Amino acid sequence: MRLAILAAGDYPRKDYPRYLLKSADVLVCCDSALESALRYGLKVDVVVGDMDSIKPAILNKFDGIKVHESEQDYNDLTKAMRYVMEKYPDIEEISILGATGKHEAHTIGNLSLLMTYEKWWRFWEKGITVQIVSDYCTAFAVGQSCKLEVGEGRKVSFFCCDPTLRIHTSGLQWPLDNVEFGAWWKATLNRASADEISLEFNHPAEVLIVLE
Question: Which residues have a Cβ under 8 Å from the Cβ of 111 and sit 6 or more positions away?
Answer without folding.
Answer: 99, 100, 132, 139, 159, 208, 210
